[in-house]
Design goal:
Elements: H1 4-15, H2 21-28, E1 32-41, E2 44-51, E3 55-62, E4 73-82, E5 90-98, E6 101-108, H3 114-132, E7 148-152, E8 157-161, E9 164-165, H4 175-189, H5 192-206
Antiparallel strand pairs: 1-2, 2-3, 3-4, 4-8, 4-9, 5-6, 5-7, 7-8
Helix pairs in contact: 1-2, 3-5
Length: 216
């Protein structure tokens, strides 16, 4: 495999078979540590594969109901597990340029009450953007519409590449280049000043009255 298109072909092959660790090793050449399969509908399947080398694949697999199409539809998101953690779940990535400057697209977990939403809107989101803004240029993609990003919650963290499907321009990206960029981002987010700033945000959240987070 050389390109993300090659990987996409392998993923479609894997998703159409038994979804076992043995099959994963045969198809990808990597040992799988865990495989989670979830089906939302009869024609739709979600597969999350974690490999022993730390890389992950999130696969959306759709049975093609169009008789004119020979193949089923796959979409893959390649990631790399990190030790990044956050009290509040977030997903952040590069989203292009405005007047020559990169900007960030940030999604955080939904909150149930007004006080939690106020904390997110007035403190957490601005603080998180402040930390990521100086390094967002490193999250830009390899093509015009792709990107790299990071997500974290209390249990896990991952840096990831933009989803790839059959019609993506960035399916031509070299797998080695994508893997190298993911490793670069992992190291970048481990830099002491970045970790200190993120830890400070979480510390400030922990100092809030416990009733704010009672229903999380």
């Amino acid at each position: 495999m050389e390109t993300m298109s090659d990987l996409l072909d392998k993923v479609c092959e894997f998703a159409s078979y038994s979804l076992t660790k043995e099959e994963a090793k045969k198809v990808f050449g990597w040992n799988a540590r865990d495989i989670i399969v979830k089906s939302k509908e009869n024609d739709e399947c979600y597969i999350y594969v974690t490999f022993e080398n730390g890389y992950t694949l999130f696969i959306k697999y759709f049975l093609n109901l169009d008789p004119t199409e020979a193949k089923n539809t796959c979409e893959i998101t390649m990631g790399l597990q990190t030790d990044l953690r956050s009290r509040i779940r977030y997903n952040i990535h590069y989203a292009g340029y405005i007047h020559g400057q990169g900007y960030i697209r940030l999604r955080v977990q939904e909150m149930k009450n007004r006080m939690q939403k106020m904390v997110l809107e007035e403190f957490y989101i601005p603080a998180l953007k402040t930390v990521y803004k100086p390094i967002i240029i490193r999250f830009q993609g390899l093509y015009s519409r792709d990107f790299f990003g990071a997500e974290a919650d209390q249990g896990q963290g991952v840096v990831f590449y933009a989803p790839v499907h059959l019609r993506s321009e960035h399916k031509a990206a070299k797998i080695g280049e994508v893997m190298g960029r993911l490793q670069e981002l992992d190291l970048l987010l481990k830099e002491p000043q970045v970790r200190h700033a993120l830890a400070e945000i979480d510390l400030q959240l922990s100092l809030l009255p416990s009733m704010v987070w009672s229903d999380l």
